[in-house]
Write a structure and sequence with these properties.
Number of domains: 2
Strand order of the largest sheet: 1-2-3-5-7-8-9-10-11
Number of strands: 11
Structural class: alpha/beta
CATH topology of the largest domain: Leucine-rich repeat, LRR (right-handed beta-alpha superhelix)
Radius of gyration: 23 Å
Protein name: F-box domain-containing protein
CATH class of the largest domain: Alpha Beta
Helix content: 25-40%
CATH architecture of the largest domain: Alpha-Beta Horseshoe
Oligomer: single chain
Organism: Hypholoma sublateritium (strain FD-334 SS-4)
Number of helices: 9
């Protein structure tokens, strides 16, 4: 009887490279995770890299984190859908317990939006425990991108403390509350590379109020891409004029993605600026 030959296995580095090719195919990754122990870790890294947390999934996600806390460091892109408080729910949300668990300094992108339609106010409509939990995510991670959708009067101090923040998006009816620098908490405003502002009536003006004070929440000295939509009325034009003359005129190159509703007549206010690319939609 011939001796049993040793079982040949691929090097772990090669296995990881193969699984990396499947990073966008969730079903195949789930199957790979059940093939062998050598496949599990890398497959889970891709499966849990992006989490979209809807209210209907909160309890299942809480159970998952309690039973498998080793999955938490894999999360890099987190999207949190907060229930509209005007819509009744059958049981309390575990979100205040989930969010403090996600402070492991691995999350790079955070998206906060409203589930159920309509805009809500950050201070008036969102429970304090949820606000505190989201604040812990800001403080416990090195966020590079922050997306805010349909939440009004959001506290700008939370993203302003993220020194690694490079991308800021205000979508829907979202807006920032007035920024007040805390003298007892000195920090350098994060230099944004990408800033995109949605259609909300107060989005653009509220964000400009955070960028123009003597102690701004966000620095625009490294801005490379600015996407915004023209809003009717002289207030928007005046705010855009101030932005063009103060911050944009100092940039060497900028891609300006501007959707014009009323016409491009107001673009004449930025004729003194050079090396800017306009993508007028």
């Amino acid at each position: 009887m011939s001796p049993k030959r040793p079982r040949r296995t691929l090097p772990q580095e090669l296995i990881d490279r193969i699984i990396d090719c499947l990073r966008d195919q969730q079903r195949l990754l789930a199957k790979c995770a059940t093939v062998s122990r050598a496949f599990v870790r890398r497959s889970q890294q891709h499966i849990f890299a992006k989490i979209i947390l809807f209210p209907s999934l909160e309890h299942r996600f809480m159970t998952l984190l309690e039973n498998s806390p080793h999955l938490i460091p894999h999360i890099q892109d987190l999207s949190v859908a907060i229930s509209n408080p005007r819509i009744p729910t059958s049981q309390p949300s575990p979100l205040p317990k989930i969010l403090p668990l996600l402070t492991q300094r691995r999350i790079k992108s955070l998206n906060i939006k409203v589930y159920g339609g309509g805009a809500v106010d950050w201070e008036k409509d969102i429970h304090k425990a949820v606000r505190d939990g989201l604040a812990s995510v800001f403080l416990g991670n090195r966020l590079e991108a922050f997306i805010l959708q349909d939440i009004e009067n959001f506290d700008p101090l939370l993203p302003a403390r993220c020194s690694s923040l490079r991308m800021l998006v205000i979508g829907g009816e979202g807006s920032m509350a007035p920024f007040i620098a805390r003298p007892y908490y000195p920090f350098s405003p994060p230099p944004l590379s990408v800033m995109m502002i949605g259609t909300g009536q107060y989005a653009f003006q509220s964000l400009m109020n955070c960028c123009t004070p003597a102690s701004p929440a966000f620095a625009l000295s490294n801005l490379e891409w600015l996407g915004l939509r023209e809003l009717p009325g002289p207030e928007w034009i005046e705010a855009f004029r101030n932005l063009a003359q103060s911050s944009l005129s100092k940039l060497k190159h900028l891609v300006l993605e501007l959707e014009v509703k009323q016409g491009a007549y107001f673009l004449s206010i930025i004729t003194n600026i050079r090396r800017i690319t306009f993508l007028t939609l």
